Amino acid sequence: MTIEVEYRFPPQIDPQKQANIIAIGQTAGTWDARFAHLEGKFKQHLGEVGKIITDPDGYSTATIYFPEINVENDLASLLTMIFGKYSMAGAGKIVGVQLPKNYGTKPKFGITGIREKLGVFHRPLIMAIFKPALGLSAADHGAILAEVAMAGLDIIKDDEILPDLDVAPTGDRLAVCRQVKAAVKAKTGRTVLYAVNVTGRADTLLAKARLLVEAGANALLLNVLTYGFSVLEALAADPVINVPIFAHPAFAGAMCAAPHTGLSYSVVLGTLMAHGGADAVLYPAHYGSLPFSPTEERKIRDILRSRNVFPVPSAGIHPGIVPQVLSDYGTEVILNAGTGIMEHPDGRGAGVKAFFEALETLEQGNSFELENLPPGALRRAREKWG
Amino acid sequence: MTIEVEYRFPPQIDPQKQANIIAIGQTAGTWDARFAHLEGKFKQHLGEVGKIITDPDGYSTATIYFPEINVENDLASLLTMIFGKYSMAGAGKIVGVQLPKNYGTKPKFGITGIREKLGVFHRPLIMAIFKPALGLSAADHGAILAEVAMAGLDIIKDDEILPDLDVAPTGDRLAVCRQVKAAVKAKTGRTVLYAVNVTGRADTLLAKARLLVEAGANALLLNVLTYGFSVLEALAADPVINVPIFAHPAFAGAMCAAPHTGLSYSVVLGTLMAHGGADAVLYPAHYGSLPFSPTEERKIRDILRSRNVFPVPSAGIHPGIVPQVLSDYGTEVILNAGTGIMEHPDGRGAGVKAFFEALETLEQGNSFELENLPPGALRRAREKWG
Predict the structure, then answer these.
(1) pLDDT at residue A132, as a whole number
(2) How are beta strands A2-9 and A93-98 bridged, if at all?
(3) What keywords would UniProt list here (chains A, B) (predicted)?
(4) Is pLDDT at A30 greater than 70 in this prediction?
(5) What are the residue ranges spanned by the domains of chain B?
């Protein structure tokens, strides 16, 4: 099996020369006559240059095939091989990675598993983020969760910048929110997932994740790119972690935002996350203010779904954007709103209800125009956000 | 204590506006009147905008002060806070980070500890890399090590792209090389460090590192940026890992090479590595073909040394460059050569000897000009590499 990687070079770069440097330099490296007797052994490790296509704008894309035997079936050794030293060589961006089907780590739940946990099969899932990000106590978290969960919310997550702080320790947040989830279950029969932000040094993080799950966490949130893909894969492979893992894109811009270096967002947030064992992946939607390309967003969506991973577009999501999201995504999507729920003029519960009213309005084929909406949460949301 | 971060923006960006977005958006986030009674709690988490300096070329640098209470005294939560979501916001690059002195993880050895292990105190250390990178058996590694170690080498490391492969399992490489090290010790009294590449999912990597140390590894190599800073910190904090950790810069270009996004090389390979517990840090020197700025290189050197971390400039290092390196670095440096040792025309042993001849030539104040050099390894090296 081979690993196929596409590198894009700007016009001033000789793609053939760079492709040769990558195919040899990132595999066997240099060798000389002293190793002539070992030539067969080296050859099996060598990368191969595939097609090189130059666009009318002068940009070239070179495909390199890497032998799978050079790496350990994980993302870290893969990244070291395909972009380790070469990432420092100048202009050249990884814009596509094709991995063997079984490469990496499989999600334990993915789209189907998350839907089964929730018992919701035929509509987009509605997800909220605890806001403000820092400064709330565990009790504040519980109060917020009670409000949105009783209004019908499917999933809530910690803000990604909230780690395990003395002012609201992760274990305390979980303990309070677990009681709220239980109360909602008792009253409505519904399950609510709370993706707890799991943090720490790799060793403490892995241990803490187990403790959290044993203490009743029914989902985890991981800042995959600041903690490391190796941590995501460890969590995904751990049988004790029998809950879905939500992957957050924090720090993705550091490696994806540049035009001529780094990797495409669709490689990092699509391919790598999907082969790293994430069950759901958050990423900036082009609906919001972040400069995110709809093309990359579509690629991420399709790559994730092809591995049964839930796409979670996550910027600029408010009730008024639902028709657009449904048109772009259909129902196999998690609508993740921060302020779009938390800052609804009539409160967070109304923020959640506005999303469900939006889904119902569309399902029944009713008009979504503001002037045609009946009084209620959706109308109020549209008055605020459009 | 505060964490001080400098963000640089290109001319078309309003630095004041962006600084405010960072100071609020990456800390407490948005809040509203409902939380007025909690204002005091939020305020302690808020970032503060410091000075904003605009250069004559129109580039601006804004300093933001972040409260240390927002993070967990580790690098992953730090990166999530200072650049998580904001990394995806467009042009804006982190060019400086000042951390409280005790922030993060301290190296167990550093410059002084590595020198003590080797019993070498007053000259640059000489380090080699096993080459070719892939395709050698464990026995091949042993044969190479015997040659260079007997010639006086201080440190050798695996190539960073060599993980734990069936063709040369990490444990086998260590077992063979450990015997060679023991033989060298018995014959010459000298210690040679072999930085074994430690790889795997976070859980298996941490366990494997302990096994390797228990099996006699006297140094480790870690691709910090592909495995995660959280893994470096876990190794550095683990009392069982009582050997120096050599940090490799593989993948650094993905987050540092772009002019307007990501982070400076000196932040990632200097500040973050030094506060992550690395004992020695490899990085591309400007002597080689990689497009590396001498200014960034000097910053890395100074930041690392300020935390007792060994700088290991690592590209284009061959015996002929020694006068330049000594002038740039003095003696507190590890000279790390791959082909500059392995491809010496008279063999690897001569490659090592050429470095020592270079040091001696300079120490004795003799001429370094090719025509004045006596016959020997250095002269042969200079004939080949200049």
Answers:
(1) 87
(2) antiparallel
(3) Magnesium
(4) no
(5) 2-98, 110-385
β-strands B60-67, B2-9 pairing: antiparallel
Residue B342 Cα, gap to closest chain A Cα (Å): 9
Q: Is the pLDDT of residue A34 over 80?
A: no
State the smallest CA–CA distance between residue B298 and chain A in angstroms: 17
Give the residue, A326 or A38, on which the prediction is more confident: A326
| Percent of chain B whose pLDDT exceeds 70 | 99
How far apart CA B208 and CA B173 sit, in angstroms, is 14
The CA distance from B169 to A367, in Å, is: 65
The CATH homologous superfamily for domain A2-98 is RuBisCO large subunit, N-terminal domain (3.30.70.150)
Q: Which of B32, B38, B261 comes nearest A253 by C-beta?
A: B261
| Alpha-carbon distance B360 to nearest alpha carbon in chain A (angstroms) | 29
Q: Is A71 on the interface with B (CB under 8 A)?
A: yes
Cross-chain CB nearest to A290 (options B70, B88, B165)? B88
ipTM: 0.97
Q: Is A85 a catalytic residue?
A: yes
The pTM of the whole model exceeds 0.90 = yes
pLDDT band at A224 (very low <50, low <70, confident <90, very high): very high
B35, B76, B159: residue with CB nearest A223: B76
CATH placement of domain A110-385: 3.20.20.110
Let me know how long chain B is.
386
